[in-house]
Design a protein that fits this description.
By secondary structure, this protein is of the alpha/beta class. It has a single domain, classed as STAS domain (Transcription Regulator spoIIAA). Helix content is 32%, strand content 35%. Strands 1-2-3-4-6-8-9 form a seven-stranded mixed β-sheet, sandwiched between helices. The chain has a two-stranded parallel sheet with strand order 5-7. Helix 1 runs parallel beside helix 2.
Length: 142
Amino acid sequence: MICLPEYKTGRIFAIQNFSENNFVQLWEENGIVRVRYKPGTSLNLDRAKKMVEERAKIFDKRSKPLLTDFTHLISIDVRAREYLADNSSIPYISASAFLLTNMLNRLLFHVFTEIDQPAFISKGFTDEQSAFEWLEFFKHYN
């Protein structure tokens, strides 16, 4: 486990189970699973499956909240969206917050939540701190 102070707020956070590939970073931070797409990421079905496989290792068959940072995601194809909303790809997600920093993020979030309708509680946020505060409730939710 690595404990670091966050640059902007000074909040101390503990990083566990860090994983990274050429399009996404994943880790657990204070009981919340984090997903952060790298700049210029386009998500297709193969990448979505790879990300879910890595995410499952971090969840370790335990219910936890998820915070997904859409900041650098530039597109997600229909098959990837459908897969990510399907029950088989979302076990153990107690709730999911999405960090939305621009219009494209908001559009992707809207399409995902309104059209694909994932089977978990989700909410969009413009700042990380509010997302963390909202997810706190779901840390012990089963």
